[in-house]
Amino acid sequence: MTEYGHWIAGAWRAPEKGHYPVVNPATEKVVGEAPESTPAEVADAVAAARAAQDGWSRTRPRERAAVLDRIADLITERSEELAPLLQAETGSTTRITSAMQLPTAAERFHRYARGATEPHVVPLAPRPVRASPLAPGGLLGAAAVRRPVGVVGCITSYNFPLVNLAGKVAPALAMGNTVVAKPAPQDPLCCLELGPLCREAGLPDGVFNVVTGSGTGAGEALVAHPGVDMISFTGSSAVGKKIAEAAGRSMKRTLMELGGKGAAIVLEDADEAVIKSAVGAVGSVWSFHSGQICTAPTRVLVHRSLYERVVAGLRHYAGSLIVGDPVDNSTTVGPLISAEQRDRVEAHIAQARDQGARIVVGGTRPAVRPGFYVAPTLITDVTPDMAVAREEIFGPVVVVLVFDDEDEAVRIANGTAYGLHDYVFSADAGSAWALAARLRSGNVGVNTVQRHPETPFGGFKESGIGRDGGSFALDAYSELQSVVWPS
Question: What would the pLDDT profile of 169-192 be if each residue is shown by its tens digit?
Fold first, then answer.
C-alpha cells in the first residue's frame, strides 16, 4: 500500500490534511492512500499550470505530438505494473481492465498526438468590403484559427478513471493547454501515477497536475479558481448543474459529459438475427463494468409483438453470467464501486417492486463476500412514469417497456431528462435512420452498441454540453480567433 502526494509542478507534494483510504470494491481492503487537498493546494496546482501554459502553448506541434506519443508508449510499457492497481481500485474485471482500461487510455494519447499536428487554421476567401465611417474599403483576407483555452480543470468519473482522464488531457495538451486534474475520489491512484509518467515522457513541469480529495472540496475549489479558464467534467447531471452554475460566474468555458438513460428500441420488423443482436447489446449493461457506464442501453423499448421473445432472450442471457471476483478470468460481472452505490442500486430495485414492476432475474444481493455486488437484474412490467424508467441507476439493471407504434416508442425514449445515447434495432436500416432523427439524443447506434472513435460525443438535454471525440475534441479544447488583414 502506497501513500500518494499531490502531483504539482512536476513533483510529489505531501498533503497538508493527510490522506484518505482508497478501497478495493471486490475485497473491501485498502488499496492505497490518496491525498486530501486544501484550497491552497488546488491554488498551487493552478498556479503551476498557469506558469507553464505560455511555454507549452508556444511549443511546436510536432514536439507536443512526440511527448503525447511517448506518454502512450509508457502507459503500454508499464501496463503490467498499472493493471493490478487499476483493477484493484475500480473493481473492473480482468477482461475489462486488459481490453478497455489501459489500452484505450494509450490509444487516446496516440490519437491526439496526431491531433496536435492537424491544421488549426481555416483560411477564408478574400472578400471586398465597402468603405465606411469605421475604415476604408478594400479586399480583406481572413482566417479562423484555433487557439488554446489556457488552464483546463479536468474532473473525471470513477468508472473508467484513466481512460476518461486521457480523453480530456490528451486533446487539451495537443492544443497547447495545461491541465489540473481532479479524479473521482473512489479510484484516483492510477491518475496520480500518470504524473511522473508524463514527466518521464518529456512533458514540462506544471503542464499536468493532479489534486485529489475524498469529498467535494477539491473540485469546488478548482471550479471557483479565477486562474482556471475551462472546466471539463464527466459525471452526474446533478453535479454538472452545480459546476455550470459556479463556472458561469466567471464565464469559464465548460465541457459537460453527464448522465444517460439509454433507450434500446426494438422495432416491429426485427427478425431473429436482429433480436439476437439486441439481446446481446442490452446484455452489455450487465457484463460491461456491471452497468457503470453512462451510455448503457438500460431501457429496452420493445414492440408488443416481440415483447415475450425479447424478455425470454434477456432472461437467458442474464442467467448465463457469472458474478464474482473480478480477478477470476471466468467472472463477467464484478462489484460496484462502493457500498453506497450498491445500496443506491438496491433501493431503485426495491422501489420498482413496490410500484408494481416484476423482477424477472436478480433483485437480491448475490452470495459473494466480501465486496459490493449487485446481481444482474431484469425488470419487466415497467411503465414510463416509474423511477427505474426515468433515473440513471448506474448498475447492472435493465428495465423493459412495451410500445405499440413508433410514435409511442419515440415519446417514451424522449420522455426522460437525459439524451446521451439511444439505440435502434431494426431489419430495415432506412427505417432505423429515419427514427434516429426523431430521438433527442447526442448519439444513436443502429443495430450496434459499438462507438466510432471519430464521432462527436456528448448529449442533449441534461446529458451535457459540448462535444469531444475525434477532431471535435480539438475544437472543444480551443478558442476560435478570427484574424483579418487587407489583401
Answer: 999 999 999 999 999 999 999 999
